[in-house]
Design brief:
0% strand; 16 helices; mainly alpha; 2 domains; MetI-like fold
């Protein structure tokens, strides 16, 4: 028989809790609850609320607005000629910057993977453009391209390529291309870091075996280096594509969407619609269209560059 004290203690026990706490997965999930609540409050809830807002005709300057209109904003955005033109500029921006940054990043990573004097210093130096804040980067390039005292004009005039200072950011044909150049200069180090880290994980035994088989440097690259880098290249291009489609800071500082809307990409047009004209519902629908396009293009890149990894 049990002692009376034991029966009284069992009355206040919590049946089942000890069994649940003994399970490692339950304790891990319990410890993640604060993080999940934070993620929901900071990330998931704003996304869902923006989706709700995109289904209304909410205009901040009109207190009586906010009625549910379904997919009306999305249909309106897809028929908006200026929004479609901004999407075209965005795709042009991504089509140039993503392959350029990935290719330059691969070439620089291959160079920095070689042994030479001062390699550690050069590796640290290559990070500086990426470490620079976006606003500072935009202001720096705006000064370099300044029509009155810009360093580019001074350099080109001194070496005799131009006879007078040019307004580089004042012409649609050159403004967007210089914005692209500024973006490539800043974002290429990200590709360098990712690809250099991947290069250092390739076993040297593979290169030794390739040399024994008579493979030259070019053949070693295509048979050993590139196949090993394909997953990292895929990740790099996905990240670069998403960043290119949401480019805003550089354009805001350098050109403000001009001249003549030449640099008015989709994110900047969404910003103007939402925060200048206060069309919150319409602007939210544009933002979701950009997100969906980013996901589609990112998936296409992954399937194109690394089909085996995706299939697995």
């Amino acid at each position: 028989m049990r002692a009376p004290g034991a029966r009284r203690g069992a009355r206040f026990a919590l049946p089942g809790w000890s069994t649940w706490l003994d399970r490692p997965g339950f304790l891990a999930a319990l410890l993640l609850v604060p993080t999940l609540v934070l993620v929901f409050g900071v990330l998931l809830y704003p996304i869902l609320d923006t989706l709700r807002l995109s289904l209304t005709d909410r205009v901040l300057s009109q207190p009586d607005s906010g009625a549910f209109i379904g997919l009306g904003n999305y249909l309106r955005a897809l028929q908006d000629p200026e929004f479609r033109a901004s999407l075209g500029r965005t795709f042009y921006f991504a089509l140039i910057t993503v392959p350029a940054e990935t290719t330059l990043g691969l070439l620089i990573a291959l160079l920095l993977n070689q042994r030479f004097w001062g390699r550690g210093f050069v590796r640290g130096l290559i990070i500086l453009p990426w470490a620079m804040p976006y606003i500072v980067n935009g202001v720096m390039w705006k000064w370099i391209l300044n029509a009155n005292y810009g360093a580019l004009n001074a350099l080109l005039q001194q070496i005799g390529l131009i006879d007078r200072y040019h307004i580089w950011l004042g012409y649609p044909s050159t403004a967007f291309n210089f914005v692209i150049l500024a973006n490539i200069w800043k974002e290429t180090p990200v590709a360098v870091i990712l690809l250099l880290a991947a290069l250092q994980t390739i076993p040297q035994e593979l290169y030794e075996a390739a040399r024994v088989d008579g493979a030259n440097a070019w053949r070693q690259f295509w048979s050993v280096t590139f196949p090993s880098l394909r997953p990292v290249i895929a990740v790099t291009m996905v990240v670069k594509t998403v960043w290119a489609l949401k480019e805003f800071d550089l354009i805001y500082v350098m050109t403000g969407g001009g001249p003549a809307n030449a640099t008015n990409v989709a994110t900047f047009y969404t910003y103007l619609t939402t925060f200048k004209f206060l069309k919150f519902g319409y602007g939210a629908s544009m933002a979701f269209i950009i997100v969906v396009l980013s996901l589609i293009i990112a998936f296409f890149y992954v399937r194109l560059i690394s089909p085996k990894e995706v299939a697995e």
